[in-house]
Every structure is written in C-alpha cells, then in structure tokens.
Amino acid sequence: MPTYNEARTLERAVRSVLALQLPYRLELIVVDDGSTDHTPVILSDIEDERLIVHAHPANLGKGAAVLTGAALATGTHLVVFDADAEYQARDLVPMADAILSGRASVVFGTRLFGVNSVYQSFHHALGNKMATLAANVIFNSYLSDMHTCLKMVPVALFRELRLSSKGFGLDTEITGELLRRGYRPFEVPISYVSRSREEGKKLVWWDGVDCLMVLLKVRLRGKVRRSATAEPTAIIDLVEAAQLEEDNRVVLSTTSSEVAVSVA
Length: 264
Hints:
39% helix; 10 strands; eight-stranded mixed β-sheet
C-alpha cells in the first residue's frame, strides 16, 4: 500500500484490509513515500503484527513505493492496494480465489465502465479506455481495464519483470511486462468509487501520454518466455502442500511450503 499524504483515508484503507477474513495469512506492507501530513502518527497507532511499515525519507514517486513494498514482501503473491479508499478490500477475496483454484496465474480486478462504479471525470474514464485499447493493439491482448490498481501477481514473477518507472508509469509498465511475457490476466469485476481532483486525485493529462510511451518502450523489448513457477499448476501444487501441512489451512509464506498473499 503506497501512500503519500493520504491521512484522510489511510486508516480506513489499512483497517479494511486487516479486517478481511481469509483462510491464509496476510501481510500488509505500507510504504510511506515521504508524507508530510499525519501519516506516520496514524500508522504508529495501528497495532497489528500483520502490518509492516516502511518510510521513504523523501517523496520518490508511487512507482518507487510499490517497488519497495514488493522487495519487502514475504508472501507468494502480491497485490497493490491504494490508500485513497477508491477500492474495496473485500474484492481481493475473489481475486485470490481465482489463483488458488488454479484458474489463473495473474488476476486483474476490473472496473466496469458504468457498472458498480463511480467515475468523477469522464475524461479520466475515457483516457483509461483509450490506453487499454492501445495496450490491446500493441500486445494483441483483450484487457478491459489496464490501469486498475488491483493486479494480483506471483511475487517471483513480479520480481522477474523489468521495471524502472518511479512514478505512475509503473502501473503501465507492469501490465506491459506481463503482456509481453504472454500472460493474459484473468479479470474479476470489482467496485470502484473515484475521487475528484478536489479530493486528492493526482493524475493529469500528460500521465496518459507517458502511458503510451511506456507501452511502446516495453513492446520494443521483445518477447520473453513465461516463468514455469508462475503457471497455475505450480500454484496448485503449492496450495496442496500447504493444505497437507496445515490441516487444510492455507497460509502465506515464501520460506516454507505454505502459501501467502502480500498487499504491497
């Protein structure tokens, strides 16, 4: 969970994730990206052994915060969850179920245009649709929502991705890197209530231009072979081993035969 001056919604977002009732262990990694508001105080008041807090000494960008969280993750899978309360933590459950059932290696929580969602700006919604169309054309894919925050990916696969963007472009780069490796995300519908600029929305029009440049840059890197450790069969083997060891209780961890999900 990357956060930068999100004191108004941070506690609600953190507690919503920690309140999830899951059949596996969950860790929540919050990366404070140089906040100057009350973020440190809010995080220090939340006592939960599943909560891991890391602070950047200065604002380095959302992408940098996500990469820091991914480096700290100890689970088998990770998903980025924003601190702005636009998304609901309960939508993580069906996403994880799709992976643990062996249906997919990578799962995207897809925001449906005009259904179960609120977009404050038509231009932001249209921009996302145009960027998603560009990704589909460039990589011969058929995504519905390239820029959804909720992308659940095996940690080992995530660390293989060639990621360098430090700002909002990292979200685009993650999608592009997955697509060029031949992964076609399984899409699960989620709910979404966007913020207005007055409420703290930070995206601007040139982020869309940067998105297109990132997609083209990633496409020019060429194709990469899929990782065998990220295939659904390998994931199912990991789940079955955990069930045998923990009496049908799936737990997240990369240091044993258990299974785990990190929210970074």
